[in-house]
């Protein structure tokens, strides 16, 4: 049975209960010699690039957060420094000149602001055609460092003041804040509806609270346009990885499947309350789940490495909430967009490829805020690895479907 959206929302706002976490300040990099693909390898790499990077650790569960690189959670592990690194990091981007469109450093949890497209876009200058040559990710969440405001043995807090302008010329003064906490056993137990995990299962989980505040003098309205919080999680693919997103079966058309052309039928399946997408990093495809259909949960299963990944996120179906259409089209209605997205990377027409990687994403409603008001969007990431029979119980509890059904959903 899939979790009820209201239940998931309630679970997300439970404070983290962490008994033995510690924040490890940056210092001497760890000993060289970790295998590529391990957390230790990535930790060593990021610490060389960002001397302010911080690590949260409890037992074998670890995550690394980078203030210099836009408050990203770059990666995590459930099995210590020699364990598998769950995030996708684009190593070559750190050595390249700044890209005029987007600097894809990677990271398994990053914050952007939307909308990307439509007449209120934050990625296109006023009057410019909405096409790739004019697309520019705002520097505030593309290349500029953030402030590390506080760190303790339970979490880190980061912030960034921003000045942005949308496609219609509306100016936004805002502050964005992120609180990131590694979750302990008690919090994970609650999120699993008190399911007793198989002893073989190793877990890492963290909660992010992401806040946007209007620090200007004018209200953000439907007519002026308003930003939204957009969370994007990037992971390495495998030939046996499948994305799965539960949806409300009462919604006749739950998903948009043609962002980059219609996704071929041998790479996607929609049936009985679940959407499935191949996440092999071999063919570009993106889908979106509209707000009415989204259930506040999505995930993936990598059968090659026995890794079950789950994201939980805020979804409030109050009629006053409006999600932004992010398509690159200034003529389409700006509202009525998606609350969740999934993306599989693949080669471009010229054969070049940024990844491979795949993404799970969640999006807040438009932030219609008066001066001084704020909107918060919560987004949790959980990774489980171990024997498949133990992972199956978790998949059924959080996704409402078995591991075997996920593995065989796309024919």
Concise overview:
With 411 residues, the chain is mainly beta. Helix content is 10%, strand content 33%.
Any descriptors?
411 residues, mainly beta, 20 strands
Describe the SSE topology:
Blueprint (H helix, E strand, L loop, with lengths): L4 H8 L9 E3 L14 H11 L4 E5 L2 E6 L5 E6 L32 E5 L32 E5 L3 E11 L5 E12 L2 H7 L10 E13 L13 E8 L5 E6 L8 E2 L11 E4 L2 E5 L6 E6 L6 E6 L4 E7 L24 E7 L13 E6 L10 E12 L2 H11 L4 H6 L3
Antiparallel strand pairs: 1-2, 2-3, 3-4, 5-10, 6-7, 7-8, 8-9, 9-20, 10-19, 11-14, 11-16, 12-15, 13-14, 15-18, 16-17, 17-20, 18-19
- Helices and strands, in order, run as HEHEEEEEEEHEEEEEEEEEEEEHH
Give the mean pLDDT: 91
- Strand tally is 20
Strand order within the widest beta sheet:
6-7-8-9-20-17-16-11-14-13
Characterization of the model:
With 411 residues, the protein is mainly beta. Helices cover 10% and strands 33% of the residues. It has helices spanning 5-12, 39-49, 185-191, 388-398, 403-408, and strands spanning 22-24, 54-58, 61-66, 72-77, 110-114, 147-151, 155-165, 171-182, 202-214, 228-235, 241-246, 255-256, 268-271, 274-278, 285-290, 297-302, 307-313, 338-344, 358-363, 374-385. The radius of gyration is 20 Å and the shape is globular. The model is unreliable at 12-31 (pLDDT under 50).
């Amino acid at each position: 049975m899939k979790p009820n959206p209201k239940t998931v929302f309630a679970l997300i706002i439970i404070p983290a209960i962490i008994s033995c976490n510690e924040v490890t300040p940056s210092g001497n990099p760890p000993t060289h010699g970790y295998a590529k693909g391990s957390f230790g390898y990535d930790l060593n790499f990021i610490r060389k690039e960002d001397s302010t990077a911080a690590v949260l650790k409890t037992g074998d569960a670890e995550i690394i957060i980078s203030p210099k690189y836009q408050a990203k959670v770059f990666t995590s592990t459930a099995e210590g420094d020699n364990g598998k690194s769950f995030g996708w990091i684009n190593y070559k981007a750190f050595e390249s000149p700044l890209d005029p469109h987007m600097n894809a450093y990677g990271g398994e949890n990053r914050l952007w602001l939307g909308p990307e497209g439509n007449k209120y876009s934050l990625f296109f200058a006023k009057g410019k055609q909405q096409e790739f040559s004019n697309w520019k990710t705002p520097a505030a969440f593309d290349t500029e460092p953030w402030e590390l405001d506080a760190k303790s043995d339970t979490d880190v807090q980061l912030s960034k003041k921003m000045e942005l302008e949308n496609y219609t010329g509306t100016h936004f003064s805002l502050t964005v804040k992120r609180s990131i906490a590694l979750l302990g056993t008690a919090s994970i137990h609650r999120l699993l509806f008190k399911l007793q995990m198989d002893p073989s299962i190793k877990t890492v989980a963290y909660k992010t609270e992401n806040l946007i505040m209007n620090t200007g003098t004018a209200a953000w309205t439907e007519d002026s346009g308003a930003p939204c919080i957009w969370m994007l999680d990037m992971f390495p693919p495998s030939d046996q990885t499948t994305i799965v997103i539960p949806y409300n079966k009462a919604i006749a058309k739950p998903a948009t499947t043609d962002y980059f052309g219609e996704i071929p039928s041998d790479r996607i399946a929609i049936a009985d309350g679940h959407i499935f997408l191949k996440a092999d990093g071999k063919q570009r495809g993106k889908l979106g789940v509209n707000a009415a259909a989204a259930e506040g949960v999505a995930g993936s299963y990598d059968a090659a490495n026995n890794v079950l990944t789950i994201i939980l996120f805020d979804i409030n179906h109050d009629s006053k909430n409006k999600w932004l259409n992010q398509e690159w089209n200034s003529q389409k209605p700006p509202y009525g967009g998606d609350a969740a997205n999934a993306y599989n990377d693949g080669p471009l027409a010229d054969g070049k490829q940024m990844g491979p990687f795949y993404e799970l994403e969640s999006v807040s409603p438009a932030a219609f805020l008066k001066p001084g008001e704020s909107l918060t969007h919560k987004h949790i990431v959980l990774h489980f690895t171990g024997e498949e029979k133990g992972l199956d119980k978790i998949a059924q509890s959080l996704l409402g479907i078995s591991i075997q059904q996920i593995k065989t959903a796309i024919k």
